[in-house]
Amino acid sequence: MKKVKSLLVSTALLASCVTSALASEGSSKFVPISKGVKSIEMNLNGEKFTLMRNQSKSSKVSALYETTFRGTPQPIKLTEKVETVGEIEFIEFMKKAQTDESIAIVDSRKPGWYAKLRIPGAINVPFTGFSTKESSIEAMEDDLGVVEKEDGTLDFSKAKTVVAYCNGYWCGQTPGMVKNAEYSLLNMGYPAEKIKYYRGGMQAWTSLGFTVVGEAAK
Fold it and tell me: I need a surface site. Which of 22, 103, 174, 186 has the fewest CB within 10 A?
């Protein structure tokens, strides 16, 4: 009987602690990006913006990403050497990219999706550009620091660190650009360690209320 009472008391204390923690978190003065950080002023690829999470209690996920009627979930790891990153890591790359030209924040979706809603400061390098050898080389030369030599070989010595995203967990556009297309980055010889995959993409980004821009931005 004493053991039962002790268990009940412990359970009650645990519930009280959890409730107190939740209450404390809920009483915060703002919705944080990370501990103690409300917003970050950025100037990325000529686009000035304030990165933050929507502070309104009535805010909802964009209608573009509120349904679950989507494609097949993508692997958490595309390959052994391609790193998968979350929001905090992605934002750290955004911060570094402001002054470090060797980092490219890439939206791999088709131009229509990019125009509709996107992460501010990202450049559009559509996955469709990796369907032919010529268009793949053009995309890598124009945006990713790759150089085609006179003999036709590719020089990746100054290839940028690509931090890429698409529509979300179920979206195959970044995986296509990275490895699945015939002339994908990896198939063309791009260094795997210079590719970062933000798997959550726009669905995760909008569900957390992060700043977005585009035609459908509120």
Answer: 22
